[in-house]
Amino acid sequence: EDGHQLWLRPHQAAPVTVVVAAKNSTLLAMAKQELERNWQGAAGATVTLTLKKDNAIKHDGFRLGPTSVRATTEAGLLYGVFELLRRQQTGQPVADKVFNPSYEYRLLNHWDNPDGSVERGYAGHSIFWRKDSSFVVTAKDKALWQEYARANASVGLNGAVINNVNASPLILSAEYLGRTKAIADVLRPYGVKTFLAVKFSSPVLLGGLKTADPLDPAVKKWWQAKAKEIYQQIPDFGGFLVKASSEGQPGPQDYGRTHADGANMLADAVKPYGGLVMWRAFVYSPNDKDRAKQAYNEFVPLDGKFRDNIIVQVKNGPVDFQPREPFSPLFGALKKTSVMPEFQITQEYLGHSIDLAFLSTMWEECLGSDTYQAGPSSTVARVTDGSVYPQKHTAMAGVANTGLDRNWTGQDFGQANWYAFGRLAWNNQLKSAQIADEWLKQTFTGATSSTASASDWNTNFLAPVTQLMLASREAIVNYSMPLGLHHIMSATHDHYGPGPWWAPPKMRADWTPPYYHQADAQGVGFDRTTGGSNAVSQYHEPLAGQFNNPATCPDEYLLWFHHLPWDFKMKSGRTLWDELALHYDHGVQQVRQFQQVWDKAQPYVDAERFAAVQNKLRAQSGNAVLWKDACLLYFQQFSHLPIPAIVEPPMHTLEGVIANDAVRPRQQPRP
Ligand code: BDP
């Protein structure tokens, strides 16, 4: 049992007859095959799949009955089949009901490089690109891509950007386009569209032009010709994802042009073919005093200036995929531009593939946050899915956590994040508890020991492990960055582990933790109030006022918005220092409790996955203690206050932790 089957484990299927009322296609053949191989309903049933117009059905939605699926697209029928099978397997009722996706495009973003390495990937090399830059497509490659596409389709994902946003110009060369076509051909029968991330300076680096200025006619022509070349090979190619004028990547600003100028030029190139441009708003430069404000400052003035086949892709928080951030103030503030949320499935800042973090709760928190931008109930979900603004296109993206590891994601529970992302992109109102329940039932069923009854399994495995998953993200927040702290990880070992001290000489300040925690003798936290950087004013009332006042600011965001004295009186009555210490300690205790829960799960899990997760939890437990000790000892240098007696005394010294951090090798060079 190596976990390779994900949540799609083979079943003893009951006999079923599938009638397809549509003309034959590979996609429908897949749908039929899924039913025949996995049917768990009444033996001998007849299931009909019908393609037909139905005004209640949107995009690739479907109408489901106990033995029927109706949709207006072939992909809709496939999603309906997967929903039917999921319901059978997880014991959910199948009444006559319409299921529509929240977003038109539900995409994975792979940060995979042409040399096969994966930026912020913790599950081995790329499933798409080879280290030896070989372009030979093997049967093994195809089989893997097919399994990947099937897994995506099973949760409703319909697009994949198959290379890194820090894009190499090579990706647009003939060889790489050839391999991209081969990938697209395998993903297509599962309804998954292929997209590429492109480097803005490709006309110079690949095309030999003198400039990549978006207003230059030769540049426009180069992109038009490139788009034509791509669509000749891949007629249903999805379009481009672009990281430009961001973190040193080239972009329109290099030529004095705006993000809209750059995005519009690319949008025009793919427009004739129905292509999309996803333009990222992850922009910041070291010159501004507060990184958190920059995307809003750059993009709000451009609202309404983007072509209608552009979606601005916005990370969930204003800084960078931290364990907890408030939602990005761009959500809801861009009213005349299509906007899509970007989440990070790979656990760059939440423990890589070692720590167990079920991220669904984090995404649910973001999607459910009320922006108030168009009155109450303008949640991030509703201002991005077309409910509030008439967006031409809607989408949601997640930075993938897949690699060549047999279990795909390194940590077996990382699979739950891939699953959860797909489910939330399909239905942005789903609850994490339901997602965890579904995933566990599908992933571990069939692996129970022969002596365990179903009710034993529910009581002793399903219930406690669901609770563990639901608490897991908060535990990481507690032992790493509680109370609104952020970006205080070590960069020496690629963002795993603590590093509040990390600030090598000459390093860009906004890449160092002291820039974010601002600890000094007076207190700790980043002052983003009206008296500070004023980032708080980017939020709509009543949020701005609520966040601006430490008495009304939620504890979770306190040090995000405020620099407060160590003896600041918290809502709990404790001092800030004591509260901080208790949070760190609580995080450590939570992980130890997770270990106990998992130990008790042994009779219900196969030996291999049991041991793998047990080992990871052991490592996580050590990591949690390290975070707690390092941060408390580091901050204590400023607070000069004792660690409260009820907190477990540190087992490390600050000098020891810092010295150890300095010698840790980087796991993977950054491209
Ligand atoms: C940061 C990552 C970096 C990515 C960047 C991005 O550390 O590797 O390139 O995000 O999203 O969090 O572009």
UniProtKB/TrEMBL annotation:
GO terms of molecular function: alpha-glucuronidase activity; xylan alpha-1,2-glucuronosidase activity
Residue ranges annotated for the Glycosyl hydrolase family 67 C-terminal domain, each copy included: 409-645
Q: Name one Pfam family in it.
A: Glyco_hydro_67C
Matching entries from InterPro entries are given as: A-glucoronidase_C_sf, GH, Glyco_hydro_67_C, Glyco_hydro_67_cat, Hex-like_dom2
> What is the name listed in the Swiss-Prot or TrEMBL entry for this protein?
Alpha-glucuronidase
Q: Which organism is it from?
A: Hymenobacter setariae
Q: Which residues form the Glycosyl hydrolase family 67 catalytic domain?
A: 95-408
> Which key words are in the record?
Hydrolase, Signal
Task: Please give a single GO biological process term from the UniProt record.
Answer: xylan catabolic process
Q: Name one GO cellular component term.
A: extracellular region
From which lineage does this chain's organism come? Bacteria, Pseudomonadati, Bacteroidota, Cytophagia, Cytophagales
